[in-house]
Every structure is written in structure tokens, then in C-alpha cells.
Amino acid sequence: MKPFSFSAVPKSFFGEGCLLKIIDILKQEGKPQKVLLITGQSSFISSVNYTQLMEGLGQAGHQVVEARVAHEPSPELVDDITNTTRSENAGLVIAVGGGSVLDTGKAVSAMVPVEGSVVDYLEGVGTKLHSGIKVPFIAVPTTSGTGSEATKNAVLSRIGEKGFKKSLRHDRFIPDYALLDPLLSLHCPALVTAASGMDALNQLLEGYMSEKGNPLTEDLALSGIQRILMSLERLCLEEPQNKDLRGQMAYAAYLSGLVLANAGLGYVHGFAGVIGGFIEIPHGVVCGKLNGVLFEAVARRVLQDPQSEAYRKLLKLSQMAVPHETKAGVQVDALIERLYRMEEVLNLPSFSSYGADEALLKKAVSMTSRKECPVSLEEETLVDLVLSKL
Fold first, then answer.
1. What are phi and psi of 179, to 5 degrees?
2. In CATH terms, is domain 190-387 a member of 1.20.1090.10?
3. Integer Cα distance of 74 and 277 in angstroms
4. Which residue in 19, 142, 177, 368 has the most C-beta neighbors within 10 A?
């Protein structure tokens, strides 16, 4: 085994009803305090879970300042919420929602102690290095996708012709606590469940195949992939309120965050990051539409080099995913077919339904990168694959 390192993980709680662990966590501080609660626009705040949380915080003497996130977070939104947090002297940030809500909370917790706009600290955009100091942050996902509850970066977007989608990143930005409560995703719409799940699946696949991977990320990725292949289609098409399947997906998404934080990603996320700066399109839809075609392209290249580390990993992955097959080549083909079938049955929208056209997709391809993918694909090949999903 080659040497490797692994980033810290949040103190994590998993289980039905663990949302209210927040009250116990705050008790450790010894006295009531003012907290910032960031949520989505409506789903969580209209639920009994929100009511129970607010009652618990109030009974414990905590004051709550609230903020809402309706879309993927922009730098301007983060700056606005950060200024409110400072002016209210809130000493802790709690984010309950999907990946956009968690990324907003992570960025706000990082920006409260420092001067300037968050833009100043974004990778590839800003010029300042963040010290890593932050206020305490509790992440509570209500969707199973980004794994932001386990990562050290917050993704922010500025959408438009010169838009961008960039990360605020530091090893210390990993949430202090992650609460994984399957009940919070119980009524998640089918499209959100599908897109989020395909995001997590792609993070696991690309993280598993990554050149930066290690034995720990490999094992975590394989476990997560297996759970998603077992659960996602059933959740979306047959049993949307199955608590066990929701739990399997919540755990798999958490694993995907651990894997990407330590192993990196590949072409799909490289492209998703670029196109997400041009148009408003769900990140998980991009991942889901490209999962099959780009995995196949990478796999075909990997199979050409039987002596490579990537070849070994690909065979191990396909054997796990489709154990009913016995021949290595057949197993890889079967896994590729499974990814295509998932995209089809989950009925993810096309890129054009969000306003993308051929010129925009070609521009996005020209700006993407392979990240940690073990093989390189020519730009012409990437264009053909991406345009097939227009």
C-alpha cells in the first residue's frame, strides 16, 4: 500500500430524529447564545422538523437569526448573510438544507471572522489566502447529493457570460458537526432525489478512479456506490418514502463528500463547474446526464492499459457493481449499461431545457479540465459526448 493522508471528518451523528442533537451540541457551550440558522426557501421551514428545532432552541434560551437560500449561492448572497451575522453577533452557524444551503453556511462561517468579500478568497478568482479561522458550523443535509456536510470547500456561483463557479476552500472549513437524519429527505421530490443521487454517484465514481485516490477512499467509494445502485432507482420510481432507502442514500452521499475531499474528481465535475457559471442548471442534472457517456469514454481508455493502477481499480469496481457477470470485459460493459439505464429511467432533463445551446456547451468544454481523472480525453471527443446530451 502506498502512503496516504486523510483529512479530518466532522463529528457525525446518523439516525432518524438526530436533527435535535443540535440542542445537545449547544448545551456543551454552557450558556445560551445567538445562532444563525440558514435554510432553504420553503420545504424545511414548513415541516414539523423546523417547528421542533425552533421550539427546542427557544426553550434552551438560544436566540435565532434566520436566513434563506433559494438558489445556488452567489458571492453577493454570502456577503449579505455574513454582514447580518456580524451585526447580530451570532456566534454559531447552523445550515439545514440541500448542498446550496450547506455551502452558504460553510462560507458564512468562514467569512464572519475576516475582512472583505468572499470573492477575495475564491480559488481562481480572488487574490487572498484565508487563514482558516471560522465560527463553529453545524451542517444538516436534507438531500442526499453533494456531500457538503463532509467537505472542506464551499462552491459559489456568479451566473452569466463571464460567470464562474468556484470554491472557497481550506482544511479547517470542514463542518464541526454533521447530522445525517434520513427523515429530513423523506418528502424530497423525485427529480431532486434523482439529480442529487446522481451527483453523489458521480463523486464516488470519479473519486474512486482518481489518480489521487488511496486505499481508504477506494473502500469508502465502493461502499457508497453499492448503496446508491441498490437504492436510488427504487426511491425515485417505487418507494419514495422508504426510510431505509433514504438512510442508505444519506450515508452514501456523506461518503461521497469524504471521498471527493480526499481524492478529487474528474471530467464530469470539471464540466459541471464551468457550465454552472454560465446558466442556472441543477448541478446534479449535469452530473447525471454525463455520468454514463464520460464514464464509458474513460473506461475504454483505461482498458487499453492492463498494467495500470486504473485498470486494476476499474475491474474491482465492475466486479462489485455487477457480480452476476464473470468475465472482466463483460462486467465493465454491464456497469456502463447500468449507468446509461439509470439516466434513462430517472428521466433527467436535457441541457437545452435549461437554455444551453451548442455554442455554450462547446465553450464550456474548452474551459474544463480532467481534474484527477487517470486518462486524458481529446477536446473533440468531449465535445461530441457533451453535445449528445443537448
1. -110, 115
2. yes
3. 10
4. 142
